[in-house]
Amino acid sequence: MTTQPLATEQPLLSVRNLKIRIQMDNGVMNAVDGVDFEIQKGKTLGLVGESGCGKSLTSRSLISLNPKECETSGSIHYRPSDSEGEKGIDILSLEPNGKAIRSIRGRRISMIFQEPMTAFSPMYTIGNQIMEAIRIHRTKDKKEAKQIALQMLSKVGISDEEKRFDQYPHEFSGGMRQRAMISMALSCNPELLIADEPTTALDVTIQAQVLELMRSLQQEFGMSILLVTHDLGIIAQMCDEVAVMYLGKIVEQAPVKELFRNPKHPYTKGLMRSMPRLGGGKEKRLESIEGSVPMAIDMPPMCSFYERCKDRIEGVCNASAVPITSISEDHTVRCFLYSEPEGGESP
Amino acid sequence: MLQYILKRILLAIPVVILISFIVFYIIQLPPGDYVSTYAAQMAAAGDNMTAEEMDEMRENLGLSGPVYEQYAVWIKKIVLHGDFGFSFSYNKPVLDVVKQYMGLTLVVSFVTLFFHYIVAIPIGIYTAVKQYSAGDYFFSGISFIGMATPNFLLAIILMFFSYKWFGDPLLGLFSPEYVNAPWSMDKVVDLAKHLIIPVIVIGIAHTADLIRVMRGQMLDELNKPNIVTARAKGVSNLKILFKYPTRAALNPIVSTLGWSLSSIFTGSTITAIVLNLPIQGPVMYNALLGQDMYLAGSWLLFMALLTVLGTLISDILLAWLDPKIRTEFRGN
Q1: Percent of chain B with pLDDT over 70
Q2: B87 contacts B93 by C-beta, under 8 angstroms
């Protein structure tokens, strides 16, 4: 689906100028540096980028999960669907671990993680850990909570759920654990599911099953998904919109088909070329992007991809901060290669 | 589970037998025996023993044969008659001496053990949660001092202050008027009062140690992803703290329970001498000095038994605490 989001419908969540700064021994790291995006109701936004680009920090800041060393500014505006016409909630203005944010976590916005083994506590049964969220948000009654948990387990394709309910995480296989994780995240019918590299720790066949499961549950529950990954293949399968992140900034953002058909930013193009594809020819070697991600400490105002960019323009790209340029109505890119013909905003 | 406990108890038997032999062997290693010590004492008092008299005495006390023979006789008596031999210096059966001191030894040891868990675990949790805060530095400082201060020195300092402020150095475990009195409420209160200094002194080093261990464990656990998961579910921080990291951090603490017990037994000797406590430390010390071998051997045997038992208890507790270990039992 590449249909444009209806202009009349308010996005479920909008992030404006999100910045996360971390005080390090050798300076301040601008881990996330002015990120803007919106998540539409019932849609999936993919956040793609290399390790260390700030995508996990960004996703966690949506429910204030980052440690207190992370100094967060900007705005994260969440409009619960049941508060028609109301202004919604600015998540960053809530007390970090206060009641208000806790009533959103797990209930309205929930999260699944990369490593289901360590994300579950080894000390308690799967059932206990799933019921925890249900008993906080849905019912105090233990029996009812158990019923809901059992339903959720069978919904994510775990058979023999009565027995599984009383088992510990180490008695589950990796794929089963991630299914259990999903059932835990969805047990309170959230409006937004944040999936932080949900399939990275799984092998490929299980990966496909888990993604398929997420998609069908999305249709059933009508929730939005923010999918954080480094895998463009998963993005292509799952997402409606994609934001490509590099070193704390979103460098390109577009509907998924547009992005794959018409990538603009040299980094996005590099990512595309480094992706294996069917019929790509045997003798052609996969390309890689040279160099590695620099640390975002004391960066001068210039394109952060400059050092690794093949198309860089000396004296331009390393001279000032890069503005965002619109390629089309819903396709934006942060690169000087496209800012000149438009005339655009000057830096 | 029951099967596992039985298996562990059966396995403990050869361990105890081995320990008993090693203990016996080592005790008689130093040159001379009780008879020569006794003869030296007599000589000091001006009464020289002849070589024949000494041999005769050895014969009477069963000290003439080779080590393994002495050991075999000793063990045979223990197993068949529950007779642990005779204490030469106390001039009564070893079992009577043991009975006299064991009760108070256990009281002091368990109160100390209890004290050090009660104090160390909450402080460990606190210092981990508030890492690098003023409170953390305060308790860390105290615990380093605690670890570095020799027990006997601390004992003397506390006795001094107790004497200065309360007019009583609180030596021993009872005030003189209660030593031979029958048990009563007043005697228990008196004992509790006298326990304060020994428990602090004996417990402080372990407590300090345990605070560090607990703090380190908690810091590990607090950084685990399952904490983030729990937060993402909307669980409150306080509930998370007790449900997840604290529970997991207790495992290594529980698994060292057996060692703690034995180190409290052995670590208390000097303190007990300084504080004049009627517990096993000084008894053991004198028995070794005077080569009162059956008493020393039996005491060590009891201590070994208690340590083995402590380890067994800590293993069972661990199985109860850690589902992974529990699953292994079920698998068996």
Answers
A1: 98
A2: yes
CB atoms within 10 A of CB A5: 15
How many structural domains comprise chain A? Answer: 1
Helix, strand, or coil (residue B290): coil
The helix or strand, by DSSP H or E, that contains position A109, with its residue range, turns out to be: strand A109-112
A37 phi, psi to nearest 5 deg: -160, 170
Contact assignment for A121 to B323 by CB distance below 8 Å? no
Of B232, B321, B324, the CB nearest to A65: B232
Give tens-digit pLDDT for A162-200: 999 999 999 999 889 999 999 999 999 999 999 999 988
Q: Which of B226, B234, B321 sits opposite A120 (nearest CB)?
A: B226
The reported pLDDT for the residue numbered A7 is: 47
For domain B101-299, give the CATH superfamily.
MetI-like (1.10.3720.10)
Query: Residue A283: its pLDDT value, please?
Result: 63
Output phi, psi for A30, to 5 deg. -90, 80
ipTM: 0.85
Most confident of A332-346, B86-100, B231-245: B231-245
| Interchain contact, B224 vs A118, CB within 8 Å | yes
CB contact under 8 A, B231 and A105: yes
A120: in domain: yes
Q: How many C-beta atoms lie closer than 10 Å to residue B168's C-beta?
A: 12
Mean pLDDT of chain A: 87
Cβ–Cβ under 8 Å, residues A161 and A187: no
- The range of the structural domain enclosing residue A124 comes to 115-189
Residues of B in contact with A125 (CB under 8 A): 323
Q: Cβ distance A250 to A35 under 8 Å?
A: yes
Q: Which of B172, B16, B203, B188 is nearest to B109 (CA)?
A: B203
- Is the pTM value of this prediction over 0.90? no
Percentages (nearest 5) of helix, strand, coil residues in chain A:
35, 20, 45
Q: Would you say residue A23 lies in a domain?
A: no
- What's the pLDDT at A166? 93
Indicate if the pLDDT at residue B300 is higher than 60.
yes
Average pLDDT over chain B reads 84
Taking an 8 Å Cβ-Cβ cutoff, which residues of chain A contact chain B? 60, 63, 65, 97, 102-107, 110-111, 113, 115, 118-125, 129, 132-133, 136-137, 168, 170-171, 184
**In three state form, how does the secondary structure of B229-241 look?**
HHHHCCCCHHHHH
Q: How far is A216 from chain B (nearest CA, A)?
A: 22
SS3 assignment, position A207: helix
What digits encode the pLDDT tens for the residues B171-230? 888 888 888 888 888 888 888 888 888 888 888 878 888 899 999 999 999 999 999 999
| The predicted structure's pLDDT at residue B116 | 86
Residues of B in contact with A59 (CB under 8 A): none
Q: How far is A130 from chain B (nearest CA, A)?
A: 9
Residue A262: inside a domain: no
